[in-house]
Amino acid sequence: MLPKKLQEKLNQRRETNALRQLKVPNAELVDFSSNDYLGFSKNPVIFSRAGEILKEHNLELNGAAGSRLLSGNHKLYELTERFIAKTHKVEAALIFNSGYDANVGFFGSVPQRGDVILYDEFIHASIRDGIQMSHAKAYKFKHNDLNDLESKLSLRAQSRSLEKANDSQIYVVTESVFSMDGDSPDLLKLVGLCEQFSAQVFIDEAHAIGVFGTGIIDDLGLGNRVTRLVTFGKAMGCHGAAILGSEILKSYLVNFARSLIYTTALPPHSVATILAAYEHAASDAKKSNSALIKLRKNIQYFCEELKKQQLQEFFIKSDSAIHCAILPGNARVKHISATLLEAGFDVKAILSPTVPAGQERLRICLHSYNSQNEIKILLALLAKSLE
């Protein structure tokens, strides 16, 4: 039996149209909801190559059978981590079982008592959970607001000086593409600002890798000035994540990140698929009809259609694959999502409390495999629903 107070919490969710349910897959719907931006999760070349990698290294196993500090650190880990580090032009990469595990592991072990974490108010839940595990003090700054960040950096720096805590560290945390907004901060200015205050920068690139080549950080040439997270469950189409940084950081995380130490490692097939996805992304990028080029064309077409349908006022400005229409009220946004579903389009309604009350939204994810006609029909249906 579920305790009464827990049942009451469920009832409250139900009464406010906020009850979460596991989604039932429907292959007949047009996909505008998944994070499979490049179609890599269904790519037969990546699937076949992963099998070849396992055979090449005699690793036809179903599981890792232990943590990475025990039996689970099979040889594909080192091979794949070297490939990832070389791709992103950093010293080292450390693979975790998921982006959630990586963020919890980093923030639960790296910031220490006396340190300060400044995080964007819209930062991902996994980072918030990691921060809660830390002994550092944490303060949020307004979303993508560098003036507010500078004010808080200045305040923390003054406090550090007054306390003569020269060994205390400031960490600034943001995302290169925000998962529930699709927008991005001015990362060049943000990193420069943080360097003025000797603050360490951590960037979550979960929704940028693949959509912006090897990520916005690489595009901007900031790879050796920040620590970052890349995940493989979005555009890379598989599973897992990695923290990118220095060799000494990697060694520290191996010793102190509990979400790495105390969990069974990814099975060889998962790591082989990560390597195969990276290899394929590199080779596909050289083609004139690459998945990335198709995706970028669809993003451009989507933005053009927004103007034609006069829908810009509802949407958060975005150059990414994520485009969100703010439609306040759980009941309202669920109704519009259901209307689109009936027409054959899978578009996710994002409800409060996942986002703040009054900021409920439709989250439209674009992919390389969506057709321009599908995009046009979707936005025409949305415009009609909003009349």
UniProtKB/TrEMBL annotation:
One of its GO terms (molecular function) is pyridoxal phosphate binding. InterPro entries: Aminotrans_II_pyridoxalP_BS, Aminotransferase_I/II_large, AON_synthase_class-II, PyrdxlP-dep_Trfase, PyrdxlP-dep_Trfase_major, PyrdxlP-dep_Trfase_small. Keywords: Pyridoxal phosphate, Transferase. Pathway: Lipid metabolism. It holds the Pfam family Aminotran_1_2. Its cofactor is pyridoxal 5'-phosphate. PROSITE patterns: AA_TRANSFER_CLASS_2. Residues 28-379 form the Aminotransferase class I/classII large domain. It comes from the Bacteria. Belongs to the class-II pyridoxal-phosphate-dependent aminotransferase family. BioF subfamily. This is 8-amino-7-oxononanoate synthase. It comes from Leeuwenhoekiella palythoae.
